[in-house]
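seq:
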Amino acid sequence: MALEPELFDALLHTVRRFVSERLRPLEAEVEAADAVPESIVEEMKALGLFGLSISEEYGGLGLTMAEECRVAMEMGRTTPAFRSAFGTNVGIGSQGLVIAGTPEQKAAWLPRIARGEIITSFALTEPDVGSDSASVKTRADRNGDAYRLRGTKRYITNADKAQLFTVMARTGSEAGGRGVSAFLVPRDLPGVSIGEPEKKMGQKGARVADVIFDDVLVPAENRLGAEGEGFHIAMQVLDRGRLHIAAVCVGVAERLIADCVAYASQRRQFGKAIAEHQLIQAMLADSKTESLAARALVLETAAAKDALDQRTAREAYRPAHGASTTMEAAAAKYFASEMVGRVADRAVQIFGGAGYIADYGIERLYRDVRLFRIYEGTSQIQQLIIAREMLKRGG
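struct:
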């Protein structure tokens, strides 16, 4: 259910000011420390950012997908680390619970997630399993009223701070996705350990690390859905997560374009501002056109997803009829992540030597955006999904 327009406009205005006045001045500090200040995290909690996508019933703001995307676009105007601080609570770390959780599971966890009292994380990728996510090797074998969980997950966002993991593990002998189940695994269970945070090319402050499960006994009541439904749950989670990331890409592109316009308007060469040179104008025009196209694609797909979710919520409708926004979400993530990479490359070119110097921040964003084309499904995986869905739908 959407917020009243006046309330949503107020939220958007507040987030916009928060980004410009509180977050952007701290970007260099976050880069150097590879961490988001706890004081900023507390401010995010107070703004309700940890509960954007969680229903009001459980203490969240209950935003629609379209509303969430517009907030994500605003958060994209600063370093991605700030959004990542609450991003797993809004998206992949909580949505398995939202989609497939029992009333008891939701009541136990969602209010605390929405308040930011606990950080969530999504554990799918493994050392030998990246794009081929149906081939997870982590096992969860039934042991009375519990499952014995064994395996290692890799590149897990917010792993070092998370208190609750949504873990995909193989429960049956069946190969592929049908043998995968989903579990809620609290960090404090014996046998759960976290590796050292990885040193990354960009997105400093957004921490990733291995999560190791060494004979962890997970209560059977912590399973999400039935055995064998985990892969389907994970794909639904990723559909939503990809759309959210696409919206962030749009925000980063808009920030880069604004920075380019400001710099090109004051930087002079050959007796005039470089913004007056046609080849610079061409790069600005290409960047703006692509960002507008990505924005339209994201918002149209978000509106379609909201409409589908409303239909699914009605008792008479069953999603097994084949309706989905999987293709559109993949297209949005593919186009937006590739688009922001091109915009960042043009930004370095427009800034020239200054674009390569850390003080201007362009080289940092250039490194930051490279990851968008990899996580939550590489661009090549998005292409495969788009083609598969096209063939399934008959073009």
